[in-house]
Design goal:
Two copies of one chain form a homodimer.
Chain A (H helix, E strand, L loop, with lengths): L2 E4 H8 L4 H13 L3 E2 L4 E5 L4 E10 L4 E9 L11 E9 L5 E6 L3 H18 L7 E4 L3 H10 L7 E5 L3 H11 L4 E4 L3 H7 L2 E4 L18 E4 L12 H6 L2 E4 L2 H4 L3 H8 L9 E2 H4 L14 E4 L4 H18 L1
Chain lengths: ~325, ~325
Amino acid sequence: MATVINLEEIKSILKNIDIIAAMEEGFIQYSNGNTVVPPVGELLFEKPKGDAHIKYGYIKNDDYYVIKVASGFYDNVKLGIASSQGLMLLFDQKTGVPKAILLDEGHLTDIRTAAAGALAARYFAPKKIKAIGIIGTGIQAKLQLQYLQKHTPCSSIWIWGRNKENVKKFVQELGTDFNIQIAESPSEIAKNCNLIVTTTPSEIALLKAEDIQVGTHITAVGSDTEHKQELESELLKKADIVIADSIPQSKSRGEIYKAVSDGKISENTVIELGTAVQDLKLQRTSEDQITIVDLTGVAVQDIMITKAVYNGYLKNK
Amino acid sequence: MATVINLEEIKSILKNIDIIAAMEEGFIQYSNGNTVVPPVGELLFEKPKGDAHIKYGYIKNDDYYVIKVASGFYDNVKLGIASSQGLMLLFDQKTGVPKAILLDEGHLTDIRTAAAGALAARYFAPKKIKAIGIIGTGIQAKLQLQYLQKHTPCSSIWIWGRNKENVKKFVQELGTDFNIQIAESPSEIAKNCNLIVTTTPSEIALLKAEDIQVGTHITAVGSDTEHKQELESELLKKADIVIADSIPQSKSRGEIYKAVSDGKISENTVIELGTAVQDLKLQRTSEDQITIVDLTGVAVQDIMITKAVYNGYLKNK
């Protein structure tokens, strides 16, 4: 019978596994063409408004296949329930037998996104990080910061958020672990930081090309649709290296989609993350380069984190 | 936290709920346009050969949405594992919160199919049933027979199967509850029975128009692809009433698809099950009519049976 792993157990297992390494392996498998990921299934609801997405797939010749269900019901907050809900299912790839149900309530999606940010920093951030700039104050802003600690000991942080109240809360929550300064604008982040992570659902570019200093690395996490944009298209033109987690997805969403649509960069100059991590020549080669990694979220990340948690569970047993 | 209901509990709950009524309500909702059922998701596997299908949807303004995962790995028998595997997931339609995980191992799909057969008999079989004819000896043959008992007390059964060994087993297993006679051919079934259920994966028509007597009802369960066929196309032409569980599906698979392709019947004469059960004029109106219900399997059946089992579970608690 399938094992059910609840959120508390998942959080405990996550402490003992290397999710960044799992993401790296996943992106490599993806870019090498070893994953099978059909189009996402979607259910839309009207009363109240909500949506559910079903993502599924597998790595060829692997042990498992994975299905992820993730929903967003924005009226849930009125009921004191998280707007994001969901679970992960893991099945034996050779028999179809269900092996595990991870009742993660959307947490693993947050974690795999943060871990991809840390992976991006590992391969593209400059060696010497002066300060880390975080744009946005939500759960992803916090997790990106926490996972970046696995890459760098830099504790000098700049934060910018549109809502001052949320900025204050962010500082209260994380201020004891970090030396956090509040920026007046995204531009002030750009002036003080050479590792920047953008985590907002903004539809207006926040970071401008003219503000970014040489040697800066930016991981853009927020935009995953055709309308969202955190980086000015000109900034992608200014960058020496532009990386997409998924080149096919970058043709229809995210920062790269915007910059290509605006005629600022050519699709052909974009490199896929899983390809770049396998080839030193495609990674940062000097401290002066400006690098951008655009993360729109790839199903192989869900496959890898579900496998990693289940393997962690089996090890503990 | 979501409730996990295992197969043993599911079987126990099924004893106390009216699945045929649940199917009736589901088919009505479906034919009335009140269901949302996106295209089926599919994963195909090579080593070993297998497939997984993800069906999902909901009834509008209902309490839940449902996802079903069903896989077939035909090498499983070598490992002593059932080739069919799967589970059903039930979520709150208003918040997305997972409510229940039914580890049914494919059993609920078998049951909802058998219950649809009994529903078809309720509305289309002649009043006086001389004998029930079953074509095929698999799990669906047995379940159809068992569920028909909820409609008729007729215990005179004729069975035909291609494999004599399987026929013998079928009689051994069910012979104590029924008076079962073995037919030499599908034609002998047609001569002796006026309620016939076909349950094989045959790709060659088994029942011929010339053999079928007036007043016979046939439920065709086996064909659910474009290649499978149990009823000669001429037989659908001979029938007075031809019913599809899903008119859209009947355009690409099942007995009706074959008969229309062969130019024997027009699509326009086919009536949908959920429409017919709401309108006496569309049901059997005389003991002499020949009626055919072609079941290809509709996602609303999965939605309804999952809901019914969960509601049965809540009642027992």
